[in-house]
Design goal:
Largest sheet: 6 strands, antiparallel
Number of helices: 3
Distance between the termini: 33 Å
Strand content: 25-35%
Shape: elongated
Order of helices and strands: EEEHEHEEEHEEEEEEEEEE
Length: 262
């Protein structure tokens, strides 16, 4: 068994320089660059990572009668092995955390909101969005906890890596038997079960809310109708609305092998 505990999650990896353009054509780094880096110093690292494997030589059956000896030939010499992958959440982009973003149907480009094409406004949190993972595939976080940025933005509405993805807890199992057929020759029968317990681990969701404009914050891709019921046109992941799951780790997959070694 191997266990990794991450202790530090701060750094400026991936951050950009925020540039401003003067009337004379010169370009300089904004005075609030340090404030921007302090607000965005969280890294998308996994807190816990656990990997374990085990092999069990299954008990043999000892038969004394003719039927018992036949059963022993069939039941003996099987080996069961398993691998556990567990830990803090992991998204389809291999990050443990993620953020919410926005788009505007009109008048929502960077230059409209911040006055600069070089850096963007950030989504604004007005409540608790939750952890970022839930048992409800249509509401992975609280969509009402955010709103879009407005004009004259400084791009400091929120930080990064605020929400955590769903934890991994996948077990792969394999059962195999080797049969010697003379000399160095060997016949192997093997059954692999990937994600043997068919555990659902959501690793992607719709994190982008669509608005009409900075002055009309009507949500265009809500997962729910005004009466609180799920929009029947958004039941499938490919049509998922804001906050709904769009992907999971692979479900149970079986593989049978017959291998001859010589």
């Amino acid at each position: 068994m191997n266990y990794v505990l991450s202790l530090s999650f701060t750094g400026n990896t991936g951050l950009q320089q925020r540039l401003q353009h003067a009337a004379d054509g010169t370009v300089s780094v904004r005075d609030d660059q340090a404030a921007y880096e302090a607000l965005n110093n969280d890294l998308p690292l996994r807190r816990h990572v656990l990997k374990a494997n085990a092999v069990w030589d299954m008990p043999d059956f000892h038969g004394t009668t003719g039927a018992g000896r036949v059963a022993a030939v069939i039941l003996n010499d099987w080996q069961l092995s398993g691998i556990l992958n567990a830990g803090s959440g992991l998204t389809s982009t291999n990050n443990a955390k993620y953020d919410l973003t926005y788009t505007y149907q009109s008048n929502g480009q960077n230059v409209n909101l911040t006055g600069s094409p070089d850096y963007a406004a950030k989504i604004l949190y007005i409540g608790d969005p939750g952890k970022g993972c839930s048992d409800n595939p249509y509401a992975q976080f609280n969509t009402a906890a955010v709103t879009g940025p407005s004009y004259n933005s400084l791009g400091l509405e929120s930080g990064r890596n605020i929400l955590s993805s769903c934890p991994d807890k996948t077990v792969d199992l394999s059962i195999a038997r080797n049969i010697r057929v003379g000399g160095a020759r060997q016949l192997q029968f093997r059954l692999d079960a990937f994600n043997a317990f068919n555990v659902v681990v959501i690793n992607n969701r719709n994190t982008t809310v669509q608005y009409r404009s900075p002055t009309d914050l009507t949500v265009l891709n809500s997962q729910y109708l005004p009466d609180g019921t799920v929009d029947p046109n958004r039941l499938q992941p490919r049509n998922a609305g804001f906050g709904a799951a769009t992907g999971t780790q692979a479900m149970r997959n079986l593989q049978i092998q017959i291998r001859f070694q010589f």
